[in-house]
Design a protein that fits this description.
Length: about 425
């Protein structure tokens, strides 16, 4: 079957990977001139298989007003005359309940663990190199109520408890000595022994290179914006770009936040909205006080990951539409927080800033479904978990497209459940 995949980020490329292995003739199209140039380019780098709780949380509702009043708060909101923004916000508020959170965790956990097994399989069988490391993760809580909530979730979810431990402040600092500057500022942490890290952009490059070589190579059509999905008799018959028409037997939309407009043009409305995040990357020097574990500062919504010889710092969620400009004061927040956590060596670091638009659903669950046309498939809405969930979602999509039963439950990833 001839299949066009729209989107050359990690989700689209993972989709192409498993479709190619099913024998399909796959073409990947993206507006960027190279692969992994959108949200996959410089994200947080953490592969969070067990820490998959959604942003929608009952504890967050009382904090949002205070965060919005802080110039350096983890969430920034710019109201727009945009019905999609307000619909998304209303649905997000409705998802901030204990039952909704537990439902999302219950459905995301099997998916994330499935993704982990597939990532490990890719590395073992194909030798893909992307600064991958199995180093574990420590989530720090500055607020006692947030820590208590995390403890309750841990205690109520046996699948989490098998690989996670609740730590007091001293145990957190003993486990990760680079956090000594936070002594007296944290109330505890959750340590997950099985978490990984890697460079998502490098994985995109590795997947693309592997797929483009050998028999039945995947065709990469880059630097081409999509102008139209051509539909005839209930099927997508072609994908139009600014330079060509690509005939297709099936179409997979995995274009992140850009998917919303593309699908809207053919009458398919999806509850996906961009949450703008930022990151900084810097080379590690011999004197650098940097973590060996993945670290997440829960209250600040900032993550730290050691990627080879670099430190990646990422975070924040700006609800500002499709604004891809790098805002200097938001980058300064990351620099200031990293300096307060790890010391003054950052003052002399060669810092590379970045921003990306995380395509999020209100519930935090991705959409992997066949909607809008008999042969139109969606793999969208992964939010901050795109890197973590990419392989699992791609395999579920490939199995469903082939008429196979996926290895994990997938009803919560239908558009009707989003």
């Amino acid at each position: 079957m001839k299949i066009v995949v729209i989107g050359a980020g990690v989700v689209g490329l993972a989709s192409a990977w498993y479709l190619q292995r099913d024998g399909h003739e796959v073409t990947v199209v993206d507006r960027a001139a190279s692969v992994g140039m959108g949200t996959s380019h410089a994200n947080g780098g953490q592969l969070s298989y067990r820490y998959i709780a959604p942003l929608a949380d009952p504890d967050i509702l009382g904090k949002i007003p205070g965060w919005l009043l802080q110039s350096g708060g983890p969430i920034r909101f710019r109201p727009r005359f945009d019905p999609d923004q307000w619909r998304w916000l209303a649905a997000f508020m409705q998802a901030c309940t204990s039952n909704a959170k537990l439902r999302s965790v219950a459905s995301l956990l099997p998916l994330s663990l499935y993704s982990r097994s597939l990532v490990h399989e890719l590395i073992a069988e194909h030798g893909l190199e992307f600064d991958f490391v199995r180093n574990g993760k420590l989530v720090l809580y500055r607020d006692p109520a947030s820590y208590a909530s995390a403890r309750r979730l841990l205690d109520s979810t046996p699948e989490l408890a098998s690989e996670q431990s609740a730590l007091d402040p001293d145990a957190c600092l003993a486990l990760e000595p680079s956090l000594e500057r936070l002594r007296g500022k944290i109330h505890g942490g959750i340590h997950t022994r099985s978490e990984d890290a890697g460079d998502c952009h490098k994985l995109c490059l590795a997947l693309a290179a592997k797929m483009a070589s050998g028999p039945n190579p995947v065709r990469l059509e880059l630097g081409q914006a999509i102008t139209q999905l051509e539909r005839h008799n209930g099927r997508i018959t072609a994908v139009h770009t600014v330079v060509q028409r690509l005939d297709t037997d099936a179409c997979v939309v995995a274009a992140g936040s850009a998917s919303t407009r593309l699908l809207g043009d053919i009458g398919v409305r999806v509850p996906v909205y961009p949450l703008k995040g930022y990151s900084i990357s810097m080379p590690l020097t011999p004197e650098a006080n940097a973590p060996t574990l993945n670290v997440t500062d829960y209250e600040r919504k900032i993550v730290y990951a050691r990627l080879g010889t670099r430190l990646r710092v990422a975070g924040m969620a700006d609800i500002v539409g499709n604004d891809e400009r790098i805002v200097a004061r938001r980058i300064k927040v990351l620099i200031d927080e990293a300096r307060a956590t790890f010391g003054a060596w950052l003052d002399h670091a060669d810092i590379t800033p970045w921003t990306g638009l995380r395509p999020a659903t209100p519930s935090g669950r991705p959409i992997v479904d066949n909607v809008g046309a008999d042969n139109l498939w969606l793999n969208i809405g992964h939010g901050a978990l795109g890197f973590t969930l990419a392989t699992g979602c791609a395999r579920v999509l490939a199995d469903r497209l082939a008429g196979r039963q996926p290895a994990i439950p997938h009803a919560d990833f239908l558009l009707s459940a989003a």
